[in-house]
Amino acid sequence: MTEVKKLISISTDPTIINESLKMKLSKLTKKELLVECDKLGIIKCKSKSKDELIKLIDTKTNNINSNTDYEPISETVAIRFPMPQYLGSKTKYIDYILKYIPDDVDSILDAFSGSGIVSYAFKQHNYRILSNDLLSYNSVITKALVENQNIKLTNEDVEMLLYDNPLKENFIEREFTDLYYTKDECVFLDNLHANILKLDNEYKRALAFASIGRTLIRKILFAYFCHTKAIEYRKNEKHWKRNPAINSDIKVLFRNYVTEYNNAVINNQKNNLSFNTNILVSADTFEVDLVYMDPPYGGTHSDYGSYYHFIETYINYWKDEMLFNTTKQPKNKLIKSKFATKEVVQAFEELFEKCKHIKYWMISYNSNATPSKDKFVEMIQKYKKNIDIKEINLSNNNGGMGLRKGSKEYLFICY
Predict the structure, then answer these.
(1) Cis peptide before 371 (omega within 30 of 0)
(2) Nearest-5° angle of CA 263, CA 264, CA 266?
(3) I need a surface site. Which of 84, 245, 255, 396 has the fewest CB within 10 A?
(4) Which of 227, 232, 181 is nearest to 326 (CA)?
(5) Number of neighbours of residue 70 by Cβ within 10 angstroms
């Protein structure tokens, strides 16, 4: 498996890729090919035959190694943006969201950027993007791929990141060994963090943190950090065979994601910016034509700070903070979104008041969330006379408890 990914990540000659990669892929089982598809962000392929999977991987690899500057959004998002494994991600709805942006919009505030995939899609369509999120990890992603226009990590940078650093600390090894990752992996993470701080460019640091963040999510059971079963799961062959990536080499996976994030760097010639703020405090400071809001869905347990607390701890390296309970959360540092509490209605009232100066609002919401659709409309009508509501029926779980099959995804267009 490592050998296959090495061909994908390093080779720059499409002819060599075609011949060598196809030979390697032909030796893999269908299950192993599906793992490769998942790593490359190829979706809806489980029903494909082995030959069809090989063709998909070969095509995707050629696209990754091409220097094409722009493709239609439905293709570009799948090819260029590192596929998120993130609760609540709007991967399925990007084209739908883009469809309803008014013609006179030039600048957009993505108020809850999350995985960054919507901000990135806006950037591809040549809007000026102000991307914001409460979590450090999310703002790192948009710093790397939305604000950043042309900076990439070089091979020399990557080699430096992997060097043994005698000045590294042992915070992750000391506190987290055998909780989410093995001792060797925790030592690697301490070393990598020390080396990331040596990078002399903020966008290179952002790319490195985005890459290791994606690596950490890929290697953890359930893709979040609210449990203590990760190592136990990895030791049980019956379980890890269903998701071999959790036992993959962390260095190899990190290198692969560096390649993916590097390939996703594009320049839309706009002054895009990434922010790491509480939108309830900062919303009235943004001057844009449209605000897109994809808040945590009230009543669905969407406490993203708790879900991704380890990555927040790692990026900020909160070595002097007290860690709580068996999952070791830095509760004194995590700011729980007001939208994920019983104060959700008040949170929306504050947000809408802060955004009243923005001409257009687009809001993603769900039928299982709080407040109800009718209450939501009532609140919006205090500020916007026109409200168009688009509905999408969900075919499966789409991120977070409560958003199950049979619920409806709403898109409110307000002006």
Answers:
(1) yes
(2) 105
(3) 396
(4) 227
(5) 12
Residue 199 has pLDDT above 90, yes or no: yes
**Helix (H) or strand (E) segment spanning residue 393:** strand 387-393
Confidence of residue 406 (pLDDT cuts 50, 70, 90): low
Among 21, 26, 31, which residue's Cα sits nearest to residue 65? 21
Contact 28, 36 (CB under 8 A): yes
Radius of gyration of the chain (CA): 21
CA distance 225 to 245: 16
- Torsion sign, CA atoms 242, 247, 253, 254: positive
Of all helices (H) and strands (E), which one includes residue 124?
A: helix 117-124
Give whole-number Cα distances, 36 to 6, 155, 256, 314, in Å: 12, 23, 12, 27
d(CA 327, CA 340): 20
- Say what the pLDDT of residue 300 is: 59
Could you give the residue range(s) of every CATH 3.40.50.150 domain in the chain?
91-148+268-302+337-414
pLDDT of residue 160: 98
How deeply is 2 buried, as exposed, middle or buried, from its count of CB atoms within 10 A (0-12, 13-18, 19+)?
exposed
User: Considering only CA atoms, which of 364, 383, 415 is closest in space to residue 118?
Assistant: 364
Strand partners, 273: 130
Instruction: Please state the pTM of the whole predicted model.
Output: 0.79
Q: Is the pLDDT of residue 367 over 80?
A: yes
Percent of the chain with pLDDT over 70: 83
What's domain 91-148+268-302+337-414's architecture? 3-Layer(aba) Sandwich (3.40)
* pLDDT at position 309: 96
Helix (H) or strand (E) holding 95: helix 94-99
Identity of the amino acid at 197: L
pLDDT per residue over 228-280, tens digit each? 999 998 988 887 777 888 999 999 999 999 999 999 999 999 999 999 999 99
Instruction: Answer whether 300's CB lies under 8 Å from 407's CB.
Output: no
